[in-house]
């Protein structure tokens, strides 16, 4: 089937562009939010979110990837009937899991608040709980569309989530702030739940419109219908390691939410200041770090169905080509983000947040150090996607688990040291993803037979990024402070990196083909 032989570039283009826009909107949403609830409110907010992310990962993270892989595999074998059955079973299963997760968070909200060491979080846990059910149900529909290598609905639904948060969550936070800080934070989180509801509604409408098109796909009459239990077993078997992998980082954040504050206090920082410091790290630094992760997620999501379909067709050369492309793109997009944020961290923070001058320098140092994790995380995501497409989903689970165990140990040890304090969290994250990345690269080489070309995959993106970094650093030193000048520097950085990447060969003209094709279609 030639239609399934799609490059990951086509899939990741819309996900990357819309994903980055969504992440930027989400980050910009934090600006007025920070004005409304302050550093302390951001600290309370971040004490709640790790628990939500962990339960969300447990209930929904692995199954969409399993659905995507199984649907793409079925379509590659001309078996759309089995693909539809996969969706029906997964939809029921995910909705049930989401409902259980929602009820657990509501029922145990007092205990979760006690664990966070701040009773003001209890109302927030209840407000965010419905989002668990909504996202789980939506994940089944997203996985089904991704299995058809149609990434547009997922991207648009992510965009709807972020925009809705701005127009719903912020007003709710404002009205909640008239009552108390706890109600302000709960208003933000309730707005998140409502935003997920709108995104789910959009995905359902897309699914209804897609039903006729999908029904027109020819069915191979020789393909036997699979039983419900057989499909459910395959979904669970494949999703367990992916779910565990997806849970590891949220679980680490969940542990951090109960660990970091106490270790900061132990380092000699007073509790109010420790809460604010944790809020700046988790609310500002990690928010910016997570913006480029949209590209990493796009690469990973596009790799799984693409490689799975290649495996189903027995197309080894295409599988290796896609794997090499995924690795090169992960360094090509991760490296410049790391370098740029490393050299102009304070400017970016001032551009996006209203941080007091006395706190800006230290927060900027946190961002510079944490920026190193961007390229590491991007490569971890792409290698995980390759291995999942190859049915080697247990490998990235084990490597990430090993990294997170070390991360928790380092957080516990380093943050309590007065001279290191919050910087220990950045050091621990860098170590975590390095430990995960290196064996992932080895196993990708082993199971794909791919010969890793160090110059093309690593050195060319590094050279282009350093050239861009030098230019951005110089502009940052020469130009005055201010949001307008910082925006100019960021735009120059993006444009110069594109030029340097084409000049060094880190970016190839073929990589721009999806953008050029879209442009020609629009002109036509």
Quick recap:
This protein is 85% helix and 0% strand. It has 524 residues and is mainly α.
Topology (SSEs and partners):
Blueprint: H1 8-76, H2 80-107, H3 109-115, H4 122-147, H5 152-177, H6 181-215, H7 228-266, H8 271-289, H9 293-313, H10 316-343, H11 345-352, H12 357-370, H13 372-389, H14 394-414, H15 423-448, H16 454-478, H17 483-504, H18 513-523
Helix pairs in contact: 1-2, 1-4, 1-5, 1-6, 1-7, 1-8, 1-9, 2-4, 2-7, 3-4, 4-6, 5-6, 7-8, 7-14, 8-12, 9-10, 9-13, 10-12, 10-13, 10-16, 11-12, 11-17, 12-15, 13-14, 13-15, 14-15, 16-17
Kindly list the characteristics that best describe this protein.
524 residues, disordered N terminus, globular, 85% helix
Explain this structure to me?
The structure is a single chain. The chain is mostly helical and 524 residues long. Helix content is 85%, strand content 0%. It contains 18 helices and no strands. The radius of gyration is 23 Å and the shape is globular.
Mean pLDDT: 82
H/E element sequence: HHHHHHHHHHHHHHHHHH
Largest sheet: none
Strand percentage: under 5%
Oligomer: single chain
Task: Kindly state the percentage of residues in helix.
Answer: over 70%
Radius of gyration, CA atoms, in whole angstroms: 23 Å
